[in-house]
Amino acid sequence: MKSFxxxxxPELAAMLHPSFRSTQLFKAVYQRRVENFDSITExxxxxxxxxxxxxxxxxxxxxRRFESVDGTRRYLLRLAGGDxxxxxxxxxxxxxxxxxxxxxxxxxxxxxxxxCLTGQLGLTRNLTAGEIVTxxxxxxxxxxxxxxxxxxxxxxxxxGEPLHNYDNVMKAIxxxxxxxxxNMSMSRITLSTAGLLPAIQQLATEPDIPNLxxxxxxxxxxxxxxxxxINRKYPLEELLAAVxxxxxxxxxxxxxxxxxxxxxxxxxxxxxxxxxLLRGIRAKVNLIPLNEADELDYQRPxxxxxxxxxxxxxxxxxxxxxxxxxxxxxxxxxGQLMKKWSDIPA
Length: 346
Ligand code: SAH
Fold this sequence. Notes:
Layout: E1 2-3, H1 9-15, H2 21-31, H3 45-54, E2 55-56, E3 62-67, E4 73-78, E5 87-93, E6 99-102, E7 106-108, E8 123-126, H4 129-143, E9 152-156, H5 166-177, E10 189-193, H6 197-203, E11 211-215, H7 221-227, H8 230-233, H9 236-244, E12 254-260, H10 268-277, E13 283-289, H11 303-315, E14 319-322
Parallel strand pairs: 1-2, 6-9, 9-10, 10-11, 11-12, 12-13, 13-14
Antiparallel strand pairs: 3-4, 4-5, 5-6, 7-8
This protein binds S-adenosyl-L-homocysteine.
């Protein structure tokens, strides 16, 4: 059986007869949330049966569901793409003005950032396009009614390095963007990368480009080399040169994520280095105070240090926000995915 979610509409059009079935099916599955072909009554019985024998339109089963006191929900979804029983982690973060669905692009991650729990796992495998798409559909259907269906943003900030799985990630983004499907605007999708330079340059040439977020954390090569080994391959000056050339729409900005580690990245001097680094870039900085874990040798800075850091940025006309710690009690917060779940109450 083929997974319906692995295919873009033009691909389906080439496979189905008549070809406009592709648009009918996209609307039924992505907009009307149909989960079996029998409900697509505009097709004949025979056609429904023949489609059902070839195409799988079921969403992944939920293996565990965790709910935070702040309403954040974290899901471990059983993946359909491989027969390996692997799980994808997806987080739904409710907010007053907009909701966020945070999805994974890989099982584990190869980049080994020293402050990130996923980085300690190593890479198990890439997710397929369908496995990326269905995380969004699952979180959407579990949290939002059909009337609220479009009221969310997507961030590729779960497990994995999205640009390490470039083709599947871009395909998933195009499927989510399709106007006959979920019709997600590119301005509501954010791809976060630790800085894979060649892939950033390739992304810049795509016809449809999501928002770009760069995980920075170290503001000098010496510091960043230690914290994010990828920096030894693609150092800051080359990374930021590529960001400077990245095409931006009117009023669009690049987001920089900066993890605040006590005594390591939280000093006034670090903040000044960050200001210098971002000079001339239309940037917005998200400061993420470390989410602590037993497995990590770092601490979260004091509130005072966090505010002092933010103030240096603001005083130098760099827009800076301190990221709220959401879903911390269920290990759904940044960098905590794939923390052992046996020790978390169900
Ligand atoms: N690999 C991509 C996508 C993952 S995004 C990237 O690096 O951008 C995950 C975000 O969480 C990154 O910005 C990372 O810097 C941040 N992060 C990782 N570990 C963290 C931790 N322990 N506390 C707070 N933020 C963390």
